[in-house]
Amino acid sequence: MLHLHRKKATVLNIVVAILFLFVAQDDLQAQFREPNLPNHDEKPYYFGITLGGNMSSFRTSLHSRFLQDDSVYVAEPNNNGGLSLGLSATLRLANRLETRFNPQLIFMNRSIRYVTKYPEGVENSTNNVKNIESILVSFPLQLKFHSDRIHNFRVYMLGGGKVDFDLASNARARRADDLVKLQKLDYGAELGIGFNFYFPTFILSPEIKVSQGLRNIHSRDANLKYSSVIDNIQSRMIVFTLHIEG
Hints:
By secondary structure, the protein is α+β, with helices and mostly antiparallel strands. It has helices at 2-32, 65-68, 225-228, and strands spanning 45-62, 72-78, 80-94, 97-101, 104-120, 125-146, 153-166, 185-198, 203-213, 230-245. It is 16% helix and 57% strand. The protein is elongated, with a radius of gyration of 26 Å.
């Protein structure tokens, strides 16, 4: 039995040694292989397209009237998904510093959940969700700080600001009592991290960032039941984006 165990251990050692040689040989070849797009980092500027998904919600603060209201018990925002499509233009400022302009069209559906005293809606429920659809034209301007390139890989951090215009803004709408009105203009700050993967003909850059609105976009109407109990509404998003750049 001990003889058989020694044979198995010897065979295992040989297999591990062979695998180690293959991995070491591949790493050695990679070191001498020319990286993809070797002159790309010297370009003064370049362009790309972006495809993204987001998880968006509101950051709300309640009005003093909420404590006096006897019909609305709860008013809290929900998280909802959305999509975005855009273009990008990047300008090289220094060896590891770039600025990027990334206009996008963003589709999102944010909502606020209310618990009311009196039943209403489907099956006379007191649990009501008010959906607020938005189509944003967003204009972010960001600074990107890059690490050194490791063969066909590089990491970067970004920060900047944005201005948004809501094409579906309902601030001037005159509708039913269940309306929550939003202003058309918003602006905010962004912070994120991304990765550059160099391919023979393009660069694929997955990126995740947090976006926080700085403006109160709520157009409060004291005469509307669901609007009067809320004071401030600010936008917030977690965004995952794929940039395809050349």
